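QA checklist item 7 of 12: single-chain prediction sanity check.
[x] sequence parsed
[x] length recorded as 684
[x] structure emitted
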Amino acid sequence: MSKKAFWTAAIIYSLVFTVYGAEKKSVKDLSEKYRIWLEEEAVYIISATEKDVFLQLETDRERDMFIEAFWKHRDPTQATPQNEYKEEHYQKIQYANYHFGRGTPKPGWKTDRGRMYIILGEPNDIERYTQESGIYNTEVWFYQGLTQYGLPAGFNVVFFQKDGAGEFKLYSPTIDGPQALMTNYFGDAANYLEAFRALREISPRLADVSMSLIPGESTAMGRPSLSSDILMQNIYQVPEKQFEDKYARKFLYYKDIVEVDYSANYIDCGSIVELLRDPSGTYFVHYLIELNRFSVEQYQNKYVTQLKINGTLSNPEGKTIHQFERSVPIEMDQDKLQQITYMPFAFYDMFPLISGSYKLSVLLKNEASKEFTSIERDIVVPGEITSPFMSSLILGYSAQADATPNLKPFKMGSERIFCEPSRLFHAKEDLHVAFQLLGLDRNLEQRAVLKYEIYKNDTPVLSTSRKLTEYENRLNFKEQFSLNGFSPGDYRLFVRLMDADREVLSEREFFQITSASGIPRPWAHSTSLFPASHPAYTLAKGRQYFKKGEIEKARLELEKIHRRQPDSLPISLPLANIHFVLKNHAKVIELLTPFADSADAKYEVLFFMGQSHKGLGEYDRAISFFDRAISRHGINIHLLNALGECYLKLGVKEEALTAWRKSLEIQPDQPGIREKVNTAQEKE
């Protein structure tokens, strides 16, 4: 196959979707504004991931957008213009600079007390030991109510003024020990118990804190508790536990794709992606995206928004194999809005896909809120299946009968499964389990049994079996289990395909049962597609094979539907593209001639007709199509370069040079064309 011909054709049908990782910059390379933000203002609250992303940004505009996203992600009330978290953070810095920088050359935020104050906020209580005989100036800060960050219910943080001057340093029971808090201790520096007893004579309360920062913890054998050092490590990790930093990677990945007004507004989502085979043999990717919050805007007496969904599948080499777009208008009245206010929103969709390994990326934008979310998954579509295969398990909270021939996401046979990424259920609900079995020979189908088992921890709570012959559908399998009587907790479901006592296949999935009185299930929007026999799927697969470089498979797919619809341009054009790659120029002309004579002929039709006539040496005919393409669709370097070649073949050198020189004016960086110009000029 000609690489030149392949890429010429690919220009028309491919849009390469690639995000390159930028080279990480050093902090010292940043301008003062961004260095101060990173190393002073946000230094204690930015996560390692956020910092890594920030240092990969290439422009000040990107850095400004990231900083906006950083604060927005921490805003507890995003519906209001005020960002309480940001305001409180800068107030903490000001407080630290005013109160903790005295008597030290450092600014207050840079001191140990400043760092703790910025991370943990104001203590619940402070005990100060100042000007007390035998003790260096010491402060004991007490905190409680921070267990959500993995910290004890109550704990102390101690600072002391070593040698009685300078800044207050953070105290460690194991590194410093009680002896470091006393001004006139001359005992064994390694004997913590002796120092503890000496300090206890001066201050029993401070002596207890000096051995452990966690109240009530016993200190065995007179040694300070290691739990105190672990506590300090956990305190430093509080900012990373407060907020998910997934948005930062999403910002880096999508910053060049989403518009500026969306880029700082990433919201998290849940998702499920499943691969299911249709009875026709075509594989479809079924996916859902679930949002915990969903914004609309009011227009007259309606509440509206528009969702934009863009999907891309690329192969391991980064080449785009399939792209799709969805535009979903949402409109509701006041009653509907009140009904769904506290419900999540779920978008269901599906698309066909040929065999291979892919990276799926789906971007969803809400035009009302200017927010975006995304999902990424690795997908493997198998080729020919020659041995038994079980798909992953789909766990649904509801199933609805649907006898229509249209394809719908998560529809298996005549039922649609509705599911949630959390896999959270209530004991009053039923658990719907769905999956597929492929590659079973007839003998195994007659013998095999499906065994269903549910465990809570390691305790079995349900076990049942059914023969495969009891199922009417031998591709899509579904069971329904009542959860009545199941106590709240974590569960595991196993589905095993058994041949006598031998396990042939098995899959498992986890789910939870909540103790809450109810679960707000999502309100959903779902696509509905043509029946499986529709030629659109064959066309989609043909285009996917073409983009993957499997030209012969692409040709076979498209010729199937071209025989049925020879007058369809959306089918004839990609088939002509394939024959152009194969250098079947006469076939290209045959396919496109019915569409080339109209006054509104598409650019692609005129371009391929011109290129094919050129390939057959019919240069006058080629020029006529290129001229029509220019007059109707405008000038570009591809048309000019092709015109130049045709004129040169006809011996009209001046016209060839005119076309190539115009092409170089549009895009100077064309060494091949420049060489042709120089060669033609030398021969004059």
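[x] summary fact logged: The first helix runs from residue 3 to 13.
[ ] second reviewer sign-off
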